[in-house]
From TrEMBL:
<dbReference type="InterPro" id="IPR025997">
    <property type="entry name" value="SBP_2_dom"/>
</dbReference>
<keyword id="KW-0732">Signal</keyword>
<dbReference type="GO" id="GO:0030313">
    <property type="term" value="C:cell envelope"/>
</dbReference>
<dbReference type="GO" id="GO:0030246">
    <property type="term" value="F:carbohydrate binding"/>
</dbReference>
<comment type="similarity">
    <text>Belongs to the bacterial solute-binding protein 2 family.</text>
</comment>
<dbReference type="InterPro" id="IPR006311">
    <property type="entry name" value="TAT_signal"/>
</dbReference>
<protein>
    <submittedName>
        <fullName>Monosaccharide ABC transporter substrate-binding protein (CUT2 family)</fullName>
    </submittedName>
</protein>
<dbReference type="InterPro" id="IPR028082">
    <property type="entry name" value="Peripla_BP_I"/>
</dbReference>
<dbReference type="Pfam" id="PF13407">
    <property type="entry name" value="Peripla_BP_4"/>
</dbReference>
<feature type="domain" description="Periplasmic binding protein">
    <location>
        <begin position="49"/>
        <end position="312"/>
    </location>
</feature>
């Protein structure tokens, strides 16, 4: 449990362009050049490559950024060539950091980013497109925001189809408690796409289990310490009525396990992300199942898409929609296959061809 304790201790276009012109200190003629969905420009020979993310203390994001570093190393550059924009869960800081870097690089930027929440994606993309930079997003955006509406500058968006996998892990949990009793759900940031989909997955599964009651569902903001606090509150309120726990990600699961340990409770839980520590806990049957989304490949290919578009290696607007909004891969990890999975994906991280932009992807994103 030592790593668990470690975790615990640890804003139409005209207005946009006017604001950007003001932010960059541009006058009337220069500001006019910012109008439109993107700034026409030649390929960028050597763009700054940046990853904007929550923080690296989270194992999932550490793997994402590790993929970004592997990509820049494939260019013959050191890891520290990758610029890190760490927002610590603040959408305001995320946007401010991006605007500052756009100003510093004069738009010579290839940006990979999780915008922290879905509404923040549009102002980030608009700022990049207006500056002539190239951006690829991961996980969070609103359904009405599409790369093809921004020419080449909004290169791509990758997310995962989380409802289905989260429903399957929920079914594993509900079977483990004999299809009877109460369960609780600890989610991510409430406005995050994956947090919404993973809770929906649980609710979908519950439709087939009339004798199981969802006692409560609360956000834990993808955070281990907050998860421990939320779970402790659930235990105080519901006690032994809780027969199982559905967690929106692995790091939430670690906090749940700590809260259960403190109360001497041993009940089944399921998680999501397939982090190394979670896989080990699955192998020990302390977590029933997790879902691996290959963050190393996701982090590397998101940076690669932005970079290769920026340097002119490919033209995003020539690509089909399925290459601009697509699902990433998922693999289920259960006690039966945890050791084999660990050997194949964690102990020996596969070497990826970062010019194969859509190899492991899983089809075009579909909206309900």
């Amino acid at each position: 449990m030592s790593f668990i304790k470690k975790f615990i201790e640890q804003e139409k276009v005209n207005r946009r362009d006017l604001l950007l012109a003001s932010a960059y200190g541009l006058g009337g003629v220069a500001a006019t050049g910012l109008l439109g969905t993107g700034m026409a420009r030649a390929a960028i020979a050597d763009p700054t490559v940046a990853w904007s993310y929550r923080n690296r203390t989270n194992p999932y994001w550490n793997e994402i950024v590790g993929g970004g570093e592997a990509f820049v190393e494939s260019l013959g550059k050191p890891k520290d060539f990758l610029t890190h924009l760490i927002n610590e869960g603040s959408s305001e800081k995320s946007l401010a950091d991006v605007k500052a870097l756009l100003s510093k690089t004069n738009g010579d930027l290839a940006l990979a980013i999780d915008t922290n929440d879905a509404p923040n994606a549009r102002p980030v993309v608009e700022a990049c497109a207006a500056a002539g930079a190239y951006v690829s997003t991961l996980w969070n955006k609103t359904d009405d925001l599409h790369p093809w509406d921004f020419g080449d500058n909004y290169v791509s968006h990758m997310s995962w189809s989380d409802e289905g996998p989260a429903e399957q892990t929920a079914r594993i949990l509900l079977e483990a408690i004999g299809g009877k009793g109460g369960v609780v759900h600890l989610g991510g940031i409430a406005s995050n796409n994956p947090a919404i989909e993973r809770l929906n997955g649980l609710k979908n599964a519950l439709k087939n289990y009339p004798d199981v009651e969802l006692l409560d569902a609360q956000p834990a903001d993808w955070d281990t310490q907050k998860a421990a606090q939320v779970m402790a509150g659930f235990i105080t309120r519901y006690g032994d009525e809780i027969k199982g726990v559905h967690c929106a990600n692995d790091t939430i699961g670690y906090g749940v396990l700590e809260a259960l340990r403190a109360e001497g409770m041993d009940i089944p839980i399921v998680t999501y992300d397939g982090n190394p520590q979670a896989v080990e806990l699955v192998a020990q049957e302390r977590i029933l199942a997790t879902v691996f989304t290959n963050p190393h490949w996701g982090g590397g290919i998101t940076a690669a898409l932005a970079y290769h578009a920026a340097t002119g290696a490919f033209k995003p607007s020539d690509e089909p929609h399925a290459h601009r909004e697509f699902y990433g891969p998922t693999i289920f990890v259960t006690p039966q296959d945890a050791k084999e999975f660990k050997a194949n994906y964690l102990d020996n991280v596969p070497t990826y061809d970062w010019s194969d932009h859509w190899g492991p992807s899983n089809g075009q994103i579909k909206y309900q």
